[in-house]
Automatic annotation (TrEMBL):
Organism: Chroogloeocystis siderophila 5.2 s.c.1
Protein name in UniProt: Glutathione S-transferase
UniProt entry tagged with the keyword Secreted: no
Superkingdom of the organism of origin: Bacteria
Molecular function terms from GO: transferase activity
Location of the GST C-terminal domain: 86-198
């Protein structure tokens, strides 16, 4: 059975839990207490040198980084449905994985960390960047139901958690109706699971 090294309040862990559920895959959760620094233990650093969750173990395959895990799960267990292999579609999906790892992580997710864990950062700048990226999402989603391919893909799953958690970073979604409609469509997917704050 697969093992997921997990922290329940992590949006990056949630996107993996959500993908596993959508694919109806069995797995065991191995809790990692980030507040006590378990992710920096020698044993955990053998799994991920960066000392970060999530980490997925599937038999003898070890994958870390939430975006990489989504790619692995989609290709290994999802066929073409979640990550198409034609060059045009795959590149469009991968663009959004890059956006979540950079733009979303350094704005919406960062602001949330400030309020949840007192992480020090330029909060005004993070919130300003958050509204910029949310406006981009809102405009993009005004013309479609899903980010790419006219269906849910790992692009949607990668971007979903921290956008849905934006209010925890004191970032209102009220001005972005197409984003909130997209959030609700994801919540309506068969196999959807939630997390604290969503």
């Amino acid at each position: 059975m697969m093992k997921l090294y997990d922290f329940p309040l992590s949006g990056n862990c949630h996107k993996v839990r959500l993908m596993l559920s959508l694919l109806q895959l069995d797995y065991e959760i191995v809790a990692v207490n980030l507040t006590e620094g378990e992710q920096k233990s020698a044993a955990f650093l053998q799994l991920n040198l960066l000392g970060q969750v999530p980490v997925l173990i599937d038999n003898d395959v070890v994958v870390w980084d939430s975006q990489a895990i989504l790619v692995y799960l989609a290709r290994r267990y999802g066929g073409e449905k979640w990550l198409p292999t034609d060059a045009d579609s795959m590149s469009k999906v991968m663009q959004w994985l890059s956006i979540t790892a950079n733009n979303i992580q350094n704005s919406i997710a960062a602001a949330r960390l400030h309020f949840l864990f007192n992480t020090q950062l330029d909060l005004d700048l993070a919130q300003q960047k958050a509204h910029q990226i949310l406006q981009i999402f809102n405009e993009h989603l005004s013309k479609r139901d899903w980010l790419e391919c006219d269906r849910p893909t790992i692009a949607d799953i990668a971007c979903f958690p921290y956008i849905a958690l934006a209010p925890q970073g004191k970032i209102s979604l009220d001005a972005y109706p197409h984003v909130t409609n997209w959030i609700n469509r994801i919540k309506d997917l068969p196999g959807y699971i939630s997390m604290p704050g969503v």
